[in-house]
Prior knowledge:
With 196 residues, the protein is mainly alpha-helical. The chain is built from 9 helices and 5 strands, in the order αββαβααβααβααα. The chain has helices spanning 5-9, 49-60, 80-88, 102-112, 119-129, 133-145, 155-161, 170-178, 182-195; strands at residues 16-19, 37-41, 66-70, 116-117, 152-153. Strands 1-2-3 form a 3-stranded parallel sheet, with no helix packed on it. It has a two-stranded parallel sheet with strand order 4-5. Helix 2 (49-60) links the parallel strand 2 (37-41) and strand 3 (66-70).
Amino acid sequence: AVLGVGKILRANPLPRLVLRPDDFEIPACRAMMAEARVVVGKELQKLPLSGLEFVGKYVEKPAQSTKLVLLNDGPVRKNKAIKKIQTKTCSVEFKPLYERQISRWIQDHLRERAYQISEDAALLIHARVGTNLRVIVNELDKILLNLDERKKIEVEDVRKIVGSARSFSIFDLNDAVGEKDLHKSLLIVNQMLGSG
């Protein structure tokens, strides 16, 4: 059966086989010692038309012992094979967060883990790390390891632990000035002057 991405990603105990466009095939073997095998087809946008047609045929009658997840990092191509795949499957689009949403996401993420963060500390993490959620989570984990018994992250915690992994360009500075965001503008200028 072809399942939604969210259900698959939560199914950790299932054995996985990750395929790339150059070796894309659907294994006919059954899952060993598990309910199902998860097959992940990455970079679907790079798959040739013959490969898309093969996947289109497969999704018409999928193996019950295989859960197929197809990942597409680029724009969706328009052809008969893609239409067939779309009609027989469900799709989920994961759009990246906008810059203005990152601080709220950090607060919500920590709230789910029974922690708090000051608004300034969340903004500082965003300014130092950028918008990559995986990097943000890694930095938050480092901070949480050093909080001792406290449950709230402050600016000083971020300054001590989080390095500046983000590099800004002149265009970022231009955007910050255009938005009349003095704090962000000064942060970008300071980082640009510090890095030469």
